[in-house]
Amino acid sequence: MSLHPTDLTSPHMADEQQRAGEAQVLTSTPPALELDGISLAFREKRSSLPVLQEVSLTVKPGEFVSLIGPSGSGKSTLFHIIGGLLQPQQGRIRMHGRDITGERGHISYMPQQPALFPWRTTLDNILLGQENAPRKDAAASSRSVSERERRKEALQWLEQVGLGKFAKAYPHTLSGGMQQRAAFLRALLSPQELMLLDEPFSALDALTRADMQQWLLQMWEKNRRSVLFITHSIEEALLLSDRIYVLSARPASVVHVVDVPFPRPRREEITLDPRFVEWKRTMTGWMREEKYKLDDNINNAEGVHKNTSDGGVNHYE
Ligand SMILES: Nc1ncnc2c1ncn2[C@@H]1O[C@H](COP(=O)(O)OP(=O)(O)OP(=O)(O)O)[C@@H](O)[C@H]1O
């Protein structure tokens, strides 16, 4: 690896960070999300496909955390487990310290495709997340407001994201980027504190995607929701995240953790910073390594049982 963590952090800063870290441990609130040793294998009649192997990660309240890994490594499966759609064979999921493994209704979710209902207006699509929220959710009851107030709030949000004129329009009249903004608002206005965003910009053209990244960055910096974000784009992960977990090829385990060193607020220009370019190069090397492992696994059918975890996670700050 060409870049060493100390290239970015002076010894003095490291001391300060350690002290700040220790102070934080003492006063720390439990993480918004904590995955502790999650493992899952899909079982079919005679075979087993190990997909996740002891994946652990943390999203602190108000953090933007990304997951990046080769295609087919198990990222979406992990989201299904967090959302309670799948039960892990090993490991626990905790939100704010409470074990929610296998429970549904605790997260708001934004999928790759905007998934707006064509028969509902933009405004009604945005309100859907609140309509579907389970009543037992503590956050939901604290935000319990009248229908009229919810519509007023949603309209204000639509104005803020440049969709005010499209409140009564149907989804097919919106561009791809506009639909994604509406889908993001739906997740943002849902009462659950944690948002899971599964490659939300993958279907957009390059220019719209760059605009949407800037838009998301600004929206997130204003609202500071806890976010877990799946992306295939290293640049996107570095631009948006506080921390990045790099997954290995299947069965996925965490092989690198990067505490992204760039200050906020961040803007597109940061992508030209030599340190940003260096991190991008480093991470591209890691991803290439994992992709080759995945290709090897596919070429050797028995390779799906290979254990890619050596138990060590490389942590960079
Ligand atoms: N219900 C299922 N039954 C059996 N195998 C499954 C099931 N769901 C997913 N898989 C397999 O598990 C592996 C991981 O899939 P998953 O969709 O989680 O990967 P991913 O990292 O999200 O991929 P991508 O980045 O391409 O979206 C794949 O090999 C997939 O074929």
TrEMBL record:
The keyword Nucleotide-binding applies. Residues 1-25 are annotated as: Disordered. SMART domains: AAA (SM00382). It comes from Paenibacillus ottowii. Keywords: ATP-binding, Nucleotide-binding, Transport. One of its GO terms (molecular function) is ATP binding. Residues 33-274 form the ABC transporter domain. This is ABC transporter ATP-binding protein. InterPro entries: AAA+_ATPase, ABC_transporter-like_ATP-bd, ABC_transporter-like_CS, ABC_transporter_ATP-bind, P-loop_NTPase. SUPFAM superfamilies: P-loop containing nucleoside triphosphate hydrolases.
